[in-house]
From TrEMBL:
Protein name: Predicted dehydrogenase
Cross-referenced Gene3D superfamilies: Dihydrodipicolinate Reductase, domain 2, NAD(P)-binding Rossmann-like Domain
Keyword Oxidoreductase: yes
Gene Ontology MF: a single term: nucleotide binding
Species of the source: Paramicrobacterium humi
Keywords recorded for this protein, A-Z: NAD, Oxidoreductase
Length: 334
């Protein structure tokens, strides 16, 4: 499978290395509006061609699929045009900035008979997989409560300018970093959210929220609390899963541990290549989906994450809970 990469930013090297590690896959083209960035990333992939126009890359005949790693609002045109060009698509999270865009992307890929996968990397992180494996043994009983906390840095100048554009990013810390938290909290919670309450703060004179809290109730009764805090004195990335007979903590820096009846044990230690192994597993999943397999991250799950980000913004605006009625149905399933 010949893969093109749009966006030669921070995670481009992970995508290139992932393709190089998989039999039957390779990065054959890289596109970025910054020509030097495109050429740098292309140089890390043997025989890859650099582009500054994604449409030219689509028309080049050099690729069978594409990884869309661009500002959030650009996902819709890049995905739908890739579908029309007959290309399979892996689009980074968040899937889009509106539910209408999510539906249009799914419908375009169904109509063109090409594969669509959404890059929710948390589903492939080794510390999270170790926690999921432990839960599936039934040793701890059912999940009853989830608490998720991540630090970030949303000071202007700390990241590319588009992250601070409400139009281009669709929001701030909650749609970006909070998207990871919503993804993994729903995954471990095993249900869909039916009620959302949230609060947001715009610090540093930012046009988008820099910090936020989300509280959710899932349809199976599991309660979820999420906090995303910008520029705290200590960095954190901690997912705490309370089960009937024990508590699991999954943290990419500290690994995965569990406590049962006062006794703690380490389930998995962190390793230096954990992030790369996650990107490699995600790329392998994309190749499998292009060959007819079901994606590790269902499209409806990815759409629900976007739905919850938008519900969180509404809840923060009105200062009250937002109710979600049943399971939203994407265009591809109507």
């Amino acid at each position: 499978m010949r893969i093109g990469l749009i966006g030669a930013g921070a995670v481009a090297d992970f995508h290139v290395a992932a393709a190089r590690a998989i039999d039957g896959a390779s990065i054959t083209a890289v596109c970025d509006i910054d020509e030097k960035a495109a050429e740098r990333a292309a140089a890390t992939a043997p025989r890859a061609t650099a582009f500054t126009d994604y449409r030219a890359m689509y028309a080049s005949g050099l690729i069978d699929g594409v990884v869309v790693n661009t500002p959030h609002a650009l996902h819709l045109p890049m995905v739908t045009e890739a579908a029309r060009a007959g290309l399979h698509v892996l689009v980074e999270k968040p899937m889009a900035t509106t539910l209408e865009d999510c539906d249009a992307m799914m419908a375009a890929c169904v109509e063109a008979d090409v594969a669509l996968a959404v890059g929710h990397i948390q589903h492939f992180m080794p510390d999270k997989l170790a926690a999921r494996d432990l839960i599936e043994t039934a040793e701890l009983g059912d999940v009853v409560l989830i608490r998720d906390y991540r630090s970030t840095d949303y000071r202007p100048g700390s990241r590319s300018g588009w992250f601070f554009s409400p139009q281009m990013a669709g929001g701030g810390a909650l749609i970006n970093i909070g998207g990871h938290c919503l993804d993994r909290s729903l995954w471990f919670g095993g249900g869909r959210a039916v009620e959302v309450f949230a609060s947001t703060v715009n610090r540093f004179d930012s046009a988008v929220e820099t910090d936020g809290n989300i509280a959710m109730r899932l349809d199976n009764g599991v309660g979820v609390s999420i906090s995303v805090i910008s520029d705290p004195p200590l960095r954190a990335d901690s997912l705490l899963v309370v089960c009937e007979r024990g508590v699991i903590v999954a943290d990419p820096r500290a690994g995965t541990s569990v406590q049962v009846d006062g006794k703690r044990r380490v389930v998995r230690e962190p390793r230096p290549d954990d992030i790369q192994s996650a990107f490699t597993a995600q790329m392998a999943d994309f190749v499998a989906v292009a060959n007819g397999a079901e994606p590790a991250v269902p499209l409806e799950h990815a759409r629900h994450v976007v739905e919850l980000v938008l519900a969180s913004y509404r809840a923060a605006e009105i200062g009250g809970a937002v109710q979600l009625e049943g399971a939203a149905v994407g265009a591809a399933e109507r």
